[in-house]
């Protein structure tokens, strides 16, 4: 058997990262899914050079909230912004409070998913 036909070990072929599964329909092809927070699907969008974060809570068109400016007062958008920063979609300058909030949310999420 030549090298090209050899089977690769499972560790080389398995994808350890599962694709994001969003709860609700979202029709903007420019949006980047970030994940879920509570009962919301979170997205980052930079359509037409106007970056924003989105929290979708239903399938109906208007069942979402969005806006970078609202991230300071809406926890869903705050988490979306932190996730977008962590993924390198937004300038990743974290304040100490943002970094602590991100760490706390990641620990909570991982413990709910039984990863830790």
Write the topology of this structure:
Blueprint lengths: L9 H4 L18 E6 L2 E6 L6 E5 L7 E3 L8 H12 L9 H17 L4
Antiparallel strand pairs: 1-2, 2-3, 3-4
The order of strands across the largest sheet is 1-2-3-4
Global structural class: alpha+beta
Q: Please tell me the overall pLDDT.
A: 79
Supply the number of helical segments.
Answer: 3
Q: Estimate the global geometry from the Cα principal axes.
A: globular
Taking the alpha carbons of the first and last residues, their distance comes to 42 Å
Q: Can you give the helix content as a percent range?
A: 25-40%
Radius of gyration equals: 18 Å
Number of domains: 1
Q: Total strand count, please? A: 4
Name the poorly predicted regions.
1-16
β-strand percent reads 15-25%
Structural commentary:
- With 116 residues, this protein is α+β, with helices and mostly antiparallel strands.
- The protein has one domain (20-112).
- The protein is built from 3 helices and 4 strands.
- The protein has a 4-stranded antiparallel β-sheet, covered by helices on one side.
- The longest helix is centred in the C-terminal third of the chain and has 17 residues, at 96-112.
- The radius of gyration is 18 Å and the shape is globular.
